[in-house]
Amino acid sequence: MAEQVRIENSGGILTLTLARPDKKNALTDAMYGKLADTIESAESDTSVRVLLIRGEGDMFTAGNDVGEFAAVASGKSEGSRNVVRFIQSLARCTRPLVAAVQGRAVGVGTTMLLHCDLVVLADNAQLSTPFVSLALVPEAASSLLMPARIGYARAYEMFALGETVPAKSALEWGLANRVVPLDKLDAEALALAQRLARQPAGALTATKRLMRNGEALVAQMNAEGEQFAQRLRTAEAREAFTAFAERRPPDFTKVA
């Protein structure tokens, strides 16, 4: 696990690195657990002033490990609650959250960015939320946050059609603060995190609490979670994940 999520605390900046590049940084239950533990612990650690989330390799994250989704859809697994702990820890986090994103950010890889206070994209970044394509529904309070951020029309297209949003559009729509060349990504994100670390921590926390209602976001997550769990066990979801495993397009027209 230590190899799949690396944690480093330096200069008041707690860096969380998704380090499973051979699997496109797809997030497993164990990885969600490590991320949640780290973010929750940071709330009581006075040495942590800023959290920085990044991914190793050529992709931020391919989202949830599809194999774990497929196991639930087929009835072979009851699923995990660590993903719930992770997204709720993001909603409740009072420390500034900075994200550095390169390549693809799929599903939760995009929705987690809605909880980050500063988002830096490499110029090759591509954001997507293909939940409906997998017969699922949005999560991480994105059904509330995404329309509020970019408008209903754009949000619906992202969710319902799984449209990919390139870095330039993401910046124009308000999903990011900066777009920089790939080789400048880590330096730019770290520089912003360092600037935040020098700011008065109490004032930053108070400002964030005024701007975001964490418990309201958790309530939305719970409502989404009920629908998500139900959808994951439907015939549509079984067809979606079977098609994925068989490397073919799903055919939802034959699903009763």
UniProtKB/TrEMBL annotation:
Single GO MF descriptor: delta(3)-delta(2)-enoyl-CoA isomerase activity
InterPro entries found in the cross-reference section: ClpP/crotonase-like_dom_sf, ECH/Chromodomain_protein, Enoyl-CoA_hydra/iso
Pfam families: ECH_1
Annotated localization: Peroxisome
Keywords: Isomerase, Peroxisome
Protein name: Enoyl-CoA hydratase
